[in-house]
Amino acid sequence: MAEAHQAVAFQFTITPEGIDLQLSHQALRQVYLSGLRSWKKRVTRLKNNVITGVYPASPSSWLFVVIAILATMYTRSDPSMGLIAKIQEHLPVSDSLSVQCRTVVSAVLFSTLLWFSLIFTMRLCLKQLLSYHGWMFEQHGKVSNTTKIWAAMVRIFSGRQPLLYSYQGSLPNLPVPAVKDTVKRYLESARLLMSDAEYERMTTLAKEFESSLGNRLQWYLKLKAMWASNYVSDWWEEYVYLRGRGPLMVNSNYYGMDFLYVTPTPIQAARAGNTLHACLLYRRKLNREEIKPSRVPVLNVPLCAAQCERIFNTTRIPGEETGKARKEFFSSGVNKRSLDCIEKAAFFVALDDDEQGMMGDDPAGNLDRYAKSLLHGKCYDRWFDKSFTVVLYKNGKNGLNAEHSWADAPIMAHVWEYVMTTDCFQLGYTEEGHCKGDVASSLPPPTRLTWDIPAECQERIERSLAVAQTLADDVDFHVLPIQDFGKGAIKKCKISPDAFIQIALQLAYYRNRGSFTLTYEASMTRLFREGRTETVRSCTSESCTFVRALEGGESKEVCRHLFRTAAEKHQHLYRMAMTGGGIDRHLFCLYIVSKYLGEESPFLKEVLSETWRLSTSQTPLQQVELFDFVNHPEYTTCGGGFGPVADDGYGVSYIIIGENMINLHISCKHSCPQTDSHKFGADIKKALMDLLELMSPEKPDPSRAEQNHLKNSKKDL
């Protein structure tokens, strides 16, 4: 009863003397503190809105402009060229204001207008500067004078100490490519995967589309691009994620893992305490906008932070079209109250009874089971609609499962990097494995949610569970950490690490299936406002030519030349995708417009129905400064993964850790006899090693050098 007593602010009893009120001071104090925290948040939000609103200037710069204008006026100069006098003429006449006061007020108003004009000009200049992407296409290590001048100008107009959202108003809009350019790039990417007859037919369809319907659809897209912040993102979210009818589990959600070799504590409750504490510390920094804006390394070009707004307190809520069961069983009463608690929560937490991780007599197999557990669990112990679910296992291991519609993986990876490092290196644990610090006695106890599930609802739940269980059982997953091979070895070959891995995937797939396939690599478009992703079609004619040459026994020199050509082509495609010159998002939006107009396009219909049998994504390590792979190599993040996109294909996620490690997450389906995650993993590892051997600088043969030395000695004799 103590908990119930503390939860009530006051009690009253009726006595002969009147009503006796018994106030609970502890409860009232909590009400006061809650209100105080709420007002602090409002003040902080207001302050941040002001700072972000005037960026790249600062609020204090207004005072500087006012003082400068007033000082100039007192030297009997008119910096406004008569505008201050015009303002003074239109001020309302008042006996309480002297002529001098009216002059000062006019000067302050002019200074404020001048200040806003300067802010607008600086933002416009920064927006134009950030629209330049020539720096991305320059050869690595060789920076042109144009780019040097551009980078200096960006630094000048970028301001100092930006908040998380400071650059949002200065980011350029995503450009709409020309229809003919997109069609040309599409046909180039499709040529190697089609027969001559198929290619000729597709070329005919493409030219018909380009010369007729395409121009009409393009007009609507350009109109949207002028009106909206981003012509892709809202349609991508709605039609690709929110309107999909497949289960989120496996098909859409993805996961992130704990440290690979270290579990900071074996106590589940302690690990849960620190993990949740770190998550809430991140949320506080997010609410205060204290997180530094993400940037492209080296040149420090800012990236869009719009996706960060929905990290916490976000959930997918189905409409009437997608499941009627919610409206029927969870729209009122105790079910609605319990559901609201979950959907309005910061995030979801799952405390699992299982032990997971790379451990025991079968560490590799256990690592695979750990991945499957994070991806789908037991099908009923994750809240897949929630923005993310933190999973904590019995042996202290943790991980997360994230919903995909609200943001892309790098956003959640940024959160998880902070959580993992804060958990271990800042909060820490006692020698016994418990959380440091004392228990806060004022914390309210947990409350069990109650539900009223009728038989009809239970039947629907069981049917859904059966579908989910079948899907989960079909997933074949393999996590493959490759040690003593990473960015360091690849850079010695003077090849982009991402291009190196993508070409290795093409080689591995060719060896695995005996053919090439349409390949999806996720690239980001966050150089633009509200940008999300674009597709890099990484199966190119150049990569296929190289693979055929290598497998056909061509000489090393020929293969090296072809490999470098393929890598350069991949880098070019990746840069084009990042700078708004991709193929697939443009075609997707043209297709959406055609549906709104009720027009049928055979070309767009065929393009949008193509199957991505190899879907790949790199998880970038963003906050390198939080890790110390030299002194603490055991604290290695394992990255994360996702399920296969096609029933007869593979999903491959990879993360490059430091200089000497790559972690691969490979998924496919048991129901397809042509796919095997472990075999494909072995093929990828062999392909990586074969490419490294091919591209590594040749070492002189000591025995041959000794023979040459002996020959030269004989000649001298």
TrEMBL record:
Query: Domain named Carnitine O-palmitoyltransferase N-terminal: which ranges?
Result: 1-47
Q: What residues form the catalytic site here?
A: H404 (proton acceptor)
The entry's localization annotation reads: Membrane
> Pfam families, alphabetically?
Carn_acyltransf, CPT_N
Q: What is its main location?
A: membrane
One GO cellular-component annotation of the UniProt record comes to: membrane
| Record domain Choline/carnitine acyltransferase: where | 174-322, 323-685
Q: What keywords were assigned to this record?
A: Acyltransferase, Fatty acid metabolism, Lipid metabolism, Membrane, Transferase, Transmembrane, Transmembrane helix
Segments for region (Disordered): 696-717
A GO biological process held by the record: carnitine metabolic process
Work out whether the entry's keyword set contains Heme: no
Q: Does the keyword Transferase apply?
A: yes
A molecular-function term among this protein's GO annotations: carnitine O-palmitoyltransferase activity
Topological relation to the membrane, as annotated: Multi-pass membrane protein
Q: Which residues cross the membrane?
A: 50-74
Indicate the family of this protein: Belongs to the carnitine/choline acetyltransferase family.
Query: Can you name this protein?
Result: Carnitine palmitoyltransferase 1C
